[in-house]
Queue: 3 jobs
Job 1
Amino acid sequence: MCMAVITLAMPMCVYAEEAAVSDSDRATIESFAQQTVEQITSMTDEQMDEIMKPSSILTAPNKFFVEAVQAWQDVRDELGAFKATTGHDIEVSEDNIVVTTNVTFEKADGAVVLTIGREDLAPSSMTFDTGADSSMAAKMEKAALNTLMGLVIVFVMLIFLSFLISQFKHFGKLENRGKKNEKELDVAAKAIPVPVAPVQEEELADDGELVAVIAAAIAASENTSTDSFVVRSIRKANKRKWQNA
């Protein structure tokens, strides 16, 4: 930075008393302003911390560097990284030279205003113009678009819900139809008679010995003779009844 100040001071000593800016002075001032802007905006976090909180009083920077770094830190997140300068505007007063440098940053365009004292030809202040009005307009435009998109989404969801609710009546009809079919099936199932398997009687005409044995057993248990009854058929007894007995 000291070399840049010396480079600026040498040609300006000749024209310090002139209000008009010659082409050579303009070129020198613009070059100095661009170098200063690039130097401040390209600093790393460690370099800015060293300027804001120097580790030694022997390396403490002057007031200009502290204020310039602070101004850059305030707008760095909003503007983004430095990309290029697009032009300079120089105004000369009795005490100062004010250089406004138009700069393109990563996120937005801005301007850097550098003030140089005519007496010592050293920079005294640097400020950043972020174009707050245009930035606010962009934010308002973005907010309006977000609001419009939100309204569209809400209306679409309402239309979908209305359509879905209108279909509930069809769901009810399908449910009633299903219940009706179930009832019809139940009635039909109850109406079908369950066939009862006929009890088959065994013909005992050809099995005389078995009939005689059974008749004798019955007569003995009843204490009577076989002439008092006739065995006409033999049926299979239920096992559960025998077990209960």
Note: Residues 1-7, 9-18, 200-205 have pLDDT under 50 and may be disordered.
Job 2
Amino acid sequence: MKETKKKYAIIGAGFSGLAMANELKKSDVDFVVYDSNSQIGGNWYNIVYESGHTITPKKVMEFPDFKMPESFPVFPSKKQIQDYLQDFVKQKGLEKHLRLNTGIQLIKCLPDERWLIQFRDGNEEEFSGIVLAIGLFRIPVIPNYEGTFTGEILHSSVYKTPEILKGKNVLVVGAGNSGVDIVVESGLNAQTTDVSLRDTPWIIPKMFKKKPITDYLGMNVPLWIKKRIIKHTHNVIFGDIRDYGLPKPKHELFTKPPTVNESFIHSIKHGKFALKPEIKGFDGKNVLFVDGTAKEYDLIIFATGYRPSYQIVEPGVIPVEENRPALVHGIFTPLAKEFYVIGSGVPNNGIGPIVFTNAKLISKAIQLQQKESKPVGIIYAGLGERTNPLRTTPKACIKRFRKLIEKTDSLIALQKN
């Protein structure tokens, strides 16, 4: 039986969903938070491996109104992040709003502009609005190759502990942040470890001159100056990576997310793993490479990223351009009322302060929508500029959202006149 309740549904209980929950609670808006996992934390619970640490310092991870403990290191561990979020939920009184172990099959817009959630267990419920907080890491990507590999294949999203590596010949494909962590861990635990690269990433250290690298990434300077500074830190810390057999990156810095890791270069210096070119195909347990060589492996771990997907939302709600979601400011859709997305346009070097500001903006937008006949996404499409998260900084991102909040306040004031 359908139940009708005047409340908002937040989908996802990670950083973004919890920030939104806290803001709606402060605004005295009724809501419930759904997550298919048994614990809060989002990717930090579901995807991150047990030895994982943040690649950004705690000061750009924490919520502005809830600091991480001083006892935490500069780069907290997975467990510490989970503990922090659990404490946040308790301190902010959000427990009663959580509905964990609750999978969602489909979100539909009804003719009366309310929203229907169909759950995987067959139940359904109506809501006044939806805030989607499921992030970008949705569908693991594993490339297709000729032939069949008869060994074991995993995506990095399901890798948790090094126990599965012991005694095996392992090939890791990809050298993003997860890939290099797994390569380093495999080099210490597997019988042999290789890494297959299509292109060398820009590898930068977590720290430089006693400061987190994000301090340099966040500087308010022209992009060309920032590139020069980051390339300088790369050269000072690592030297010429070609000395270790790594070719120079084919792509320009910041056109793809850089890899933040010192241990990768340290491990290759000490012979913990070997480099392999791009994969051409498979023949049983043999992997065939584009340079004509082949090698037998027991396990391949694909650290090849994710494809963003909002497949739990019916078509026609989220605009799509070039097969990718095209949300206004990464939050709003011009196609439907009372539907918002939080956490989709976050730069790679910070989340807490940004989703904190996102949540405030969405809370204001909900207020604005009450007296608007058209979706507020249409209004926001004419406010501000779209920016590439890879080419901006947390400070610039927050500044942009604060300006949108100010403009929203002005529009709300006009509604009252």
Note: The longest helix spans residues 394-416.
Job 3
Amino acid sequence: MFLLFITRKIAVPGKPFIIMTIPGSQPKLPSIVLYSHTDVVPTFKDNWKYDPYSGYKDEHGNIYGRGAQDMKSVGSQYFEAIRRHFKRGKRQWLRTIHIVWAPDEEIGAIDGMAKFVKMPEFRELNLGFMLDEGLATEGSTYKVYYAERNPWWIEFTCEGSPGHGSKFIENTAGEKLVELLVLLFCCDCIVCSTGEDSWENAVEKKSAGNRTGIGEGAEKNRHCARILNYHRVWNRL
């Protein structure tokens, strides 16, 4: 007998979890979870060839849309793999399989997985093994990463001498920010100049980071006393 359930779980209003479950022949065994997230980062529509939220498909089968790589492509692979098994007559496995679509991943999952793991519905999944978010690939190989890689969100505060924008003031926050950015970019250059053939391979083996934002603490035409720099570091443990 074959069954397939689709359920909707709410940890935070407006941010649902969508879970597709294929019960196993031995449902008491720890389950397999195939994870994806539904949210995407913001976009600037004027910089896109097609509407980023239209899911436009061209004559070659390429789909254009925000989140196509991060990470709808991975979730689509899960669905396609199961669809092919269904077509071949394989419609049940030893273990229960859950395909989970979660919200809020791009901004830290505070209202997403962080809350869901504390709910009884998460414990009911009886999780034994989970494939989390990976990297999209243009080839036919699906890559599985087995090491731990944790993101660190770091905020640097550069403080310096304030004053009017027409004055040449020493020891400003801006000067310190430049020194910080040069240092951070040099670290990235070291990562990417170690013989790796791609950024992806470098990130797989080392720590690397990206500047994700700069904030300042004063109006225009002034040397501000404080500048904030936001840095995301992928740390390979």
Note: Confidence is low (pLDDT under 50) at residues 191-199.
